[in-house]
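question for whoever is on the cluster today: can someone run the full assembly for these? two chains, 553 residues total. i dont have access anymore since they changed the login thing
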Amino acid sequence: MTGIILGAAGLGLLWSVMTIGVFLTYRVLDIADLTAEGSIVTGAAAAAVIIAGGGNPFAASLAAFLAGAATGLITGLLHTKLKIPALLSGILCMIALYSINIRIMKGAANVSLLRKTTVYTEVLRLLPSAANKDMAAIAAGLLCAAAVCAAVYWFFGTELGSAIRAAGDNMKMARSQGINTDNMIIMGLALSNALIGLSGGLIAQYLGFADVSMGIGSIVIGLASVIIGEVLFGVKTFRRTLFSLVCGSVVYRIVIAFVYKLGMPASDLKLFTAMTVAAALYLPKLTKKWAKRAKGGGGNAVG
Amino acid sequence: MLSVEEVRKTFNAGTVNERIALDGVTFRLEEGDFITVVGGNGSGKSTTMNAIAGVFPIDSGSVRIDGRDITALPEYKRAAYLGRVFQDPMMGSAARMNIEENLALAYRKCRRRGLGWGVTKKERGKYRELLAQLDLGLEDRMTSRVGLLSGGQRQALTLLMATLNKPALLLLDEHTAALDPKTAGKVLALTEKIVTENKITTLMVTHNMHDALRYGNRVMMMRDGRAVFEAAGEEKARLKVADMLEMFEI
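^ ran it for u. tokens below:
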């Protein structure tokens, strides 16, 4: 039992980096960015190819980050320069990445990392001998999630980060305050997908392989984690929100582990996740409706 | 100071929805002018303002501010010369950011935005002072999200943001039309105070003839995408709402 929870917690922490990336597009830029489905694999593929070739796992993780950033840059250019709607830009990039990801993996659909030096084997060497791979994943995941949270918290408090937030919040206002909104959107998408790529690279090292189809449904998992985190842990301040995102990712993984344990076939996971997200998105509207009814049907929201 | 020369704009050209919005608009503003612009729906007054702000490219003509031709500049670059307040109180500020962050965005208008802090301690004190002058109690809510403010409060904040760095030209696009009469009166009084104290050249579009005559030193009426009547100084002071309405009917 503890084994299952430890494994789920480790994986959840690795996924939390992706969740923060999804949050940046979905909440900060107000774009549902489907590039994520491709960029997580791009990160995984880039890291896996380097590690399989005997490269340094930390350099490989950095490469995953940069490869992810490049995918976000492409989506951003499609959206702002070619004026393709954001949702469609993401879909186009995601589809194109399927081919590119196979090219990165030198024509193969997957790359195995069996018995290779990964971030976790390196971290495991620093831990007491009783520690296992899951504990190494938790240690590495915690460190990475904390570093990403701190960096994101700092960046969105700077002038540049504020400008990106403004562009995502109210484009007309941002332009009237002299902000080049196109550049801000491109930057936001690049940063988001960089984190998603990094997450993909870390996940591939944990699973021991990169596979071209490992990204399917990842955007929904990311959204589920964002929503679970926000609902369960709150969004009062930005600091709190980041904490919630990490916790949301871990809770999602633990829930999934339990649902498996209860006997749900693995192939039903995507259905389960999609239903969770649909329900969670409807929940706020439902509670509003109830609140209105409790008030006697009257009373418009004061705004 | 501002010169708008023969500006033309046709929307949906070549389709059944073709509409000539601006048909050779020409006017000039001198330093310190406060002009009010009136006209019916579709007369081109808001389109004129948007053409100055660069919301869309114009078909022909030119817009100059302080002698510099800004006709080809993108909207975000023109912002360096302009302060803008929109009709919709929700449009002028970022709802999910707090009051001080919004002011800080305006303070950094058209400066390089780097990796320094988005709001510094020194600025906070200055913002508090400025907010206190609005007399709306906003100085004690500087970390509240702007989305929580009322329409009047948001419009007052937008006005403050638009004039934080004295703009060469302030554009007010029916900025009190969405407010209740009492709040509208307050925001207009505030507008006049800020504009006269800082001697800001201002262009105000309004639907309200009373306001058009009461504020500013010049008035312009538009019809069918052209400026059809103008009055300034003494002549404007003598105008009555009835005179304006009569011209409106023609």
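summary bc i know u wont read the tokens: The first helix of chain A runs from residue 2 to 29. Strands of chain A lie at 110-112, 209-211.
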